[in-house]
TrEMBL record:
Protein name: DUF998 domain-containing protein
Organism (species): Methanobacterium spitsbergense
Entry's transmembrane regions: 16-36, 67-88, 95-113, 119-138, 150-169, 189-207
Domain of life: Archaea
Keywords on record: Membrane, Transmembrane, Transmembrane helix
Length: 222
């Protein structure tokens, strides 16, 4: 049985720079869109009490706030999927890429299946949170340096622990995340570490030249 030991660089298909650029654009446009949507949300919006999904699913979908947020989700998903394709084409780790692919597809579909379709929305949200966190934890398999590895593990654990905290502590006031940060704040402790790290990873990949990539990827990594 053949299996891939981390990333195996293919010098004839070096697309890491472009993949990194796509990740940067995807994440920055999302963060800007969230900020604009929160500012334009009709009525009172609380980042502690309201979830991010409320921006696209508790008001008419034609409302500017909902349109901006949902379209941003779709763009985020499409660009992440495109980045995954380029990473795989360059010989990138399949485990990391698979997790990031599921995250990207789920995020993109969340822009279509909003809170008006609760069952589908919750399922996609769970997939995005789980595999987004796992993508961070497995990103070391891209052969990144120790500093980026530490950052990815810390942010990945923050996101994953926050997501599974209801299974550990229960719901309501028994859950310290919900008690101190609220539902909206807890959700942001999941999605923001993922988005911020992917922005950093995009910058990391896009700033590296062919010689660096060859040095880090030729032998492969567990």
């Amino acid at each position: 049985m053949k299996f891939q030991r981390g990333s195996l660089f293919k010098p004839e298909h070096n697309h890491y720079k472009f993949a990194g650029t796509l990740l940067i654009v995807a994440c920055i446009q999302y963060l800007i869109a969230v900020n604009i949507s929160e500012s334009m949300f009709p009525g009172n919006y609380s980042i502690a009490l309201n979830s991010l999904s409320d921006l696209g699913g508790t008001i008419p979908l034609v409302d500017p706030s909902a349109l901006i947020f949902n379209i941003s989700n779709i763009i985020l998903g499409i660009l992440i999927v495109a980045a995954v394709y380029l990473i795989l084409k360059s010989g990138g780790c399949r485990l990391f890429s698979s997790c990031l692919l599921i995250f990207g597809i789920s995020i993109g579909l969340l822009g279509i299946f909003t809170e008006y379709t609760p069952a589908i929305h919750v399922t996609l949200e769970a997939l995005a949170f789980i595999f987004g966190s796992l993508a961070l934890l497995f990103s070391y398999r891209l052969g990144i340096n120790i500093q980026m590895t530490v950052i990815s593990i810390v942010l990945g654990l923050i996101a994953l622990i926050t997501f599974i905290s209801p299974l550990i502590f229960g719901m309501g006031d028994n859950n310290p995340f919900g008690l101190y940060f609220g539902m909206g704040g807890s959700e942001r402790l999941i999605i923001y570490p993922i988005i911020l790290y992917l922005t950093a990873l995009g910058g990391y990949l896009s700033s590296r030249g062919k010689d660096w990539v060859k040095l880090r990827f030729t032998e492969g990594y567990w």
